[in-house]
Task: inverse folding
């Protein structure tokens, strides 16, 4: 029997791909994966804004506008008031779904991250690629929502075009943070807690349905901390054309801070979970 | 292709790999053989540049995984212990998305993917879902996927664990073909027959250390005898007979002493390690030992393995 002895001739390695290329490869995977399921998502993408605006804006709005609502809202119809708030809030809601189950799945169930990490991709590439993909998904939904808003006649200014990036930024403020949380979970029961005690209260009390000045005084400062309130205010100012540079840039900066902080946190929990 | 010196992997207080030295050359088929928990998978994951080295030095394809992980991984093919196939994608799409991770265009990945499906005999399943495939088919698909980037070295962590005998033989046949083509294979297994079939050289690992190293034949030569005589007695007096046989062998004036290197008394049978099984059996008869059945067989890697890692169950 012949035995091959170890030789010292190692193959020549190709140069390392750029980070951008690696992140792009991860985005591409999620795109291909989405193509198999996208048909099922269209209905909810279109029906969510239609349902919300018809029921809350027109239905509830007719009562609000005939009552004391008009003065509280500064002369803006309830439909116009609520539409940009719903845009920001529903993008946040979608962001939280897209950042929860699919992330734990890619760690534990389908293990796509593990497949990726056996290739040239690093943890940060897998993470950034998935976050970016969720951002792309959010921009599709936000664009559809904006078209529906336009059809309902709720866009009062050309600034409204910027509602698209503003809403996506609002969603993205939550994405990496929830990624970070998902990477610490063993089962999906932690997501029920997240939706019930974080996402739902934010959805209701961040100025989406009524101005936060209507909140009890002790609760009002809390709303300023919540990123959704900044997203709602930003989208509303853009849709109604009431933009002031200082306030709007402040909102953008605050939301960006959440994106960056969440990403740093996610990189830590992802590394701890995936690199052992 | 691999050079490891004093390689250590610790998880907290637990030492999974306890200072091993390994060298694997180009074109070799190298095996890590050991019971569960011996440190095989931890070693493989370090070589695959997905698990950081705790201590010691490791060079894979001539480079340091801590520095050049992505570059090294771009030239490796990995078959992990647990499949990481995407059940929501078709068989061919699984190969295409994996090829994309290596920077291949969709067209190139699809073309190479089709060739690889042919190689692992799954070409008729190209457009079917992954979920309903049998365990053996999924394993073959994972092997096809690991080859998408035409790797310099293939790492296989327990490639046939859990497969039925037919499926195992198909996998072995494909791996043997790769070996013939000059692909460097590194695999872990706890199947002796797998190691004997595929490996030019292997190490036996136990408790995070290397217990022995060599070709399957040289390991058998060094750690066992040419043949093994297995004696079975009536159900409940195996131990009594075993003691008697041990006593016979130990008597200095008997020819048995020269024939038998080692006696092992197991609950159900007595093993005599000898270079001449038939002569041993004749001598036993002459001494009045009358077992219910006698089997003379060639020594296998399993005898080496059990000698080195013990017979007690590791869990």
Result:
């Amino acid at each position: 029997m012949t035995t091959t002895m170890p030789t010292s001739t190692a193959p020549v390695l190709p140069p390392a791909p750029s980070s951008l290329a690696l992140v792009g490869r991860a985005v591409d995977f999620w795109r291909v994966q989405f193509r198999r399921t996208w048909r099922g998502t269209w209905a909810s993408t279109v029906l969510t804004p239609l349902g919300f605006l018809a029921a809350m804006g027109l239905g509830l709005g007719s009562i609000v506008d005939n009552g004391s609502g008009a003065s509280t809202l500064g002369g803006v119809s309830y439909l116009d008031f609520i539409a940009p708030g719903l845009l920001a809030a529903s993008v946040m809601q979608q962001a939280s779904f897209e950042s929860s189950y699919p992330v734990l799945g890619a760690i534990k169930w389908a293990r796509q991250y593990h497949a990726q990490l056996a290739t040239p991709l690093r943890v940060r590439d897998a993470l950034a690629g998935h976050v970016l993909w969720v951002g792309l998904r959010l921009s599709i939904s936000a664009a559809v929502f904006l078209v529906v808003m336009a059809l309902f006649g709720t866009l009062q200014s050309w600034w409204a075009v910027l509602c698209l990036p503003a809403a996506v930024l609002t969603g993205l403020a939550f994405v990496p943070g929830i990624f970070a949380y998902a990477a610490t979970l063993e089962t999906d029961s932690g997501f029920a807690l997240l939706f019930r005690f974080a996402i739902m209260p934010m959805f209701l009390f961040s100025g989406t349905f009524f101005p936060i000045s209507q909140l009890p005084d002790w609760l009002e400062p809390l709303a300023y901390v919540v990123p959704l309130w900044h997203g709602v205010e930003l989208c509303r100012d853009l849709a109604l054309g009431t933009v002031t540079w200082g306030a709007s840039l402040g909102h953008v900066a605050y939301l960006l801070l959440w994106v960056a902080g969440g990403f740093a946190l996610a990189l830590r929990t992802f590394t701890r979970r995936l690199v052992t | 292709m691999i050079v490891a010196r004093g390689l250590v992997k610790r998880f907290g207080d637990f030492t999974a790999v306890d200072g091993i030295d390994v060298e694997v050359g180009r074109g070799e088929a190298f095996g890590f053989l050991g019971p569960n928990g011996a440190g095989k998978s931890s070693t493989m994951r370090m070589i695959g540049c997905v698990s950081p080295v705790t201590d010691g030095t490791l060079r894979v394809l001539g480079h340091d995984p801590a520095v050049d992980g992505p570059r090294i991984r771009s030239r490796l093919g990995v078959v992990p212990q647990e499949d990481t196939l995407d059940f929501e994608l078709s068989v061919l799409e699984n190969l295409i998305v994996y090829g994309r991770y290596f920077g291949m265009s969709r067209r190139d990945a699809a073309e190479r993917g089709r060739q690889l499906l042919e190689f692992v005999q799954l070409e008729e399943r190209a457009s079917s879902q992954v979920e309903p495939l049998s365990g053996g088919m999924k394993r073959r698909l994972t092997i096809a996927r690991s080859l998408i980037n035409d790797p310099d070295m293939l790492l296989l962590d327990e490639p046939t664990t859990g497969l039925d005998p037919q499926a195992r033989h198909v996998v072995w046949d494909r791996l043997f073909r790769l070996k013939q083509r000059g692909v460097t294979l590194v695999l872990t297994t706890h199947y002796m027959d797998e190691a004997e079939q595929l490996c030019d050289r292997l190490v036996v690992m136990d408790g995070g250390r290397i217990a022995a190293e060599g070709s399957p034949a040289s390991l058998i030569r060094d750690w066992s005898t040419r043949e093994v005589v297995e004696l079975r007695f009536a159900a409940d007096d195996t131990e009594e007979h075993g003691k008697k046989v041990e006593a016979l062998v130990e008597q200095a004036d008997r020819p048995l002493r020269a024939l038998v290197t080692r006696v092992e008394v197991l609950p159900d049978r007595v093993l005599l390690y000898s270079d001449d099984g038939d002569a041993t059996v004749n001598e036993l008869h002459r001494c009045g030992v009358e077992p219910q059945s006698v089997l003379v067989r060639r020594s296998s890697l399993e005898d080496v393995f059990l000698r080195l890692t013990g017979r007690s169950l590791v869990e």
